[in-house]
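ok so heres the complex, four chains, lmk if somethin looks off
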Amino acid sequence: MPSSSTDGRSKYLRVADELIESIKTLDPHDSLPSERDLMQTFGVSRMTIRRAIEQLGRQGIVYQVQGSGTFVTDPEVVTKTLRLTSFTEDMERRGLTPSSSTLSSSVEPASGEVARRLHLEPGTEVLRLERLRLADGEPMALETCYVPPIGIGWTEFEPAGSLYAQMKAHGINVDRAAQTIEAVNLDRDQAHRLDQPVGAAAFRVTRVSYRETGVPVELAATLYRGDRYDFDLVISREAP
Amino acid sequence: MPSSSTDGRSKYLRVADELIESIKTLDPHDSLPSERDLMQTFGVSRMTIRRAIEQLGRQGIVYQVQGSGTFVTDPEVVTKTLRLTSFTEDMERRGLTPSSSTLSSSVEPASGEVARRLHLEPGTEVLRLERLRLADGEPMALETCYVPPIGIGWTEFEPAGSLYAQMKAHGINVDRAAQTIEAVNLDRDQAHRLDQPVGAAAFRVTRVSYRETGVPVELAATLYRGDRYDFDLVISREAP
DNA sequence: AAGTGGTCTAGACCACCGC
DNA sequence: CGGTGGTCTAGACCACTTC
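and the predicted structre for the whole thing:
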């Protein structure tokens, strides 16, 4: 048993961590030691080294050239993959303080569209929540979400808090979501609630969230103020 | 030497192709044969099978559960990761016919902002291209892009075609890009050129593209019509 | 307990780059 | 040519799920 780092993580992840540390002393486009050298250094097989380097490559930290070597990427491109987050988490990541005001909350039969997207029989009762989302006390987004019956009593829900956090507390882990992002002009009512001029540009994000099993757990339509919100991400050419 | 498929591609990619074919006959959440079964079926080692399945996993076609098996993803949630594409590729994927009209094309010294984002000395000459992008003959986007000197003669560039394709032909492979997506209102001039009412909502996408070495190869600011364009993607909760 | 995917080893050969 | 990364093999043990 190795004296250092006996956490439960895989060996290649620990190697990756150590490689990241040693890369910090290198300049862009400097070459790393060859994989065969690294085998000796870390005392692991070549495949383990390659898996570690593969990790770094996916994070954009290094790039490899066949026949030539492994090199440090010019660090301009920090990987910022778009990740599925709740509004609360999203705002905190942006350094803003989230809050929320519930505009309406009701249990009602799912309409055809809602039922279809949540894989429910039309008429099944769902929780409908309409909330104004604030960041640093100022309106940021207007959200309408629908939650299907998933074993949590409607009355237990705390509309002000993070939906995902409350689901997690009940053993429901949201895994991924399909979303559509549109650019729209705010109508009079929306503009008024968001404290924006009528016709101002906004994002409309329509999202269906799923747990690992593929069962939908939330349908949300959110209007984000265009002057306060944007998407910032790094995308790659090939499927990562 | 195998009788079938002796193309230059790797064995695991050929296995992946065959797996995709056989998956088409399965339903969502059906399980694939175990990796050890597939070894027998394809007559390859387990690692080759795993690399093939890894490909499918990255494309969101299957998912794996330790101790349980490999399963077909529900096609509703099949990955539509935002990938780095040229306008031409993007439109074709949407089933539209792209075309382009060059509004202006010039070689000029890079301004401070452009130079900074392309890692150039201010004043370095760059190609500035202003194009109206059409889909099915109707305006879709208005694009201004800056290309640094990357070993391609300015005069060789064909503004009408795909920039990425031309770069690739010169051995420059675009690998990833950092982009910011904003929601904005069109001003009078932009609206006129996009055949939209003044103030209509649009996406402003600002993108810096990099080759795998981290060297910037393009800066582009594109205005997409909000009524014709949207982003459709699947995001996951955990990072790779 | 049996079967699954997850990790790891110690080799091997190939394709490509630079000298 | 030697050195590099890219692929592949035939094993092995572990962690986990399912029964």
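quick notes: Chain B has seven helices and nine strands. thats all i got rn
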